[in-house]
Amino acid sequence: MKEQDSIPVTKVQRASKFITTGAKIGANYLKHYGKKLINPDTTTAGLHEDNANDIYNSLSELKGGALKVAQMLSMDKNLLPTAYQQKFVMAQYSAPPLSYPLVVRTFQKYFGKKPDQVFDTFTTSAVNAASMGQVHQATIGKKKFAVKIQYPGVGDSIKSDLAMVKPIALAMFKLSPSEYDEFIQEVESRMLEETDYELELKRSMDLSQRTKHLKNVVFPTYYPEYSCPRVLTMDWIEGRPLGEVLKSPMPRATANLLGQAMWDFYHFQMHTLKAVHADPHPGNFIITPDNKVGIIDFGCVKEIPTDFYDPYFQLMDRRLLTDKEHQTELFQKLRFIYPDDTPKQKEFFTSTFVKLIEMLNRPFRDGEFDFANSSYFDELYAFGEKLSTMKELRDSKKARGVRDAVYLNRTYFGLYTILHDMKAKIVTGPH
What's the sign of the alpha-carbon dihedral 200, 201, 204, 205? Predict the structure, then answer.
């Protein structure tokens, strides 16, 4: 893959890139409408593919917050047309990497040395590149390290990037402005934390230590002496990225074993640690040769406030579906409905969220669930697609849901999707 020699870092440079991309999208629409005049049966597939290529190519040059949003959107299978999903999923672990001289510059700034003066060997090309940083392999003696290096200017550009990506998201993906604003505030907070490698180092050491007793999950050891605000060094975990493993059918016993390990890992974090690895995409997991799940990235962690934890997990209670009084009280706490909503709005949003909660809670219902169940996911994605086109949601002047739920919802959705891709059958209740 072609390497980048620089990243646009100033607001003017990055804004210019967005404007150029917008012009390309406009040209794609003109081309599409021209084709449609000649052939009224022309579908939007070509338009989506052209737009997906232009947007991804632009965002992958910018890196940072804009590319991270693309990565997050790629996980919402009900939100994006297939062309966008297929292109944006590359942001998880296959973005164009930075060239070696830029990596050397980062090392010289923070360590006063080149990478090959800190380590015995250091790969000049990245072995993995995502939205916020890229990974190189290094050695000291026989010991292998994974060295994550943050792209220049990522932290400084997050706020302005998210402001510039808003019009594209609202226009192309038909999102409600109030929903988007609530979503983006939480995204901005998590992204700013994700650029703080000192915080990530601390969390990684703490959370991996407190979770290491779980079966069939493994964590790297982290090395403060080889880390700094823009470089994070950990053990190299041998194995294959989950995204690669999922390209081929997985033996059922292996899928069940790995799926159970992931479920238990997330369940323990949610309910015991109240701090969650909130970026469950295939690029963040390594499958080891002895079939364990390697957890390699604690950059995005959602700490769950106590006053939010209690009402959120009350949504799991089956009685909620029939106890109208409790339902109204809880839905107001979580801002699904508001006291000043009209009776019609209350009825609409209550019935909508009851249906959504029933579907999302289904894996918990019998204590065991087969995530290979395609009919469940067809129903889930169809309802998600219906939600994305609901005029009442798009036109709502109020965000429906509290911002603390954004990353927990995404974590569950990402976990469900991975388990479905694995075709795993797991125990979801106490075991």
Answer: negative
